[in-house]
């Protein structure tokens, strides 16, 4: 379970970083794209 949990954390951090980069790049457009992906 620890391995699964750490993998989930890694995925969550990756998605979070992806969203942050998108917002930095496109501002509101990037934010909408991030919301649309979810």
UniProtKB/TrEMBL annotation:
> What protein name applies here?
Competence protein
Species of provenance? Micromonospora deserti
């Amino acid at each position: 379970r620890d391995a699964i949990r750490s993998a989930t954390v890694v995925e969550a951090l990756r998605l979070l970083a992806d969203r942050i980069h998108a917002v930095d790049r496109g501002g509101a457009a990037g934010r909408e794209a991030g919301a649309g992906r979810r």
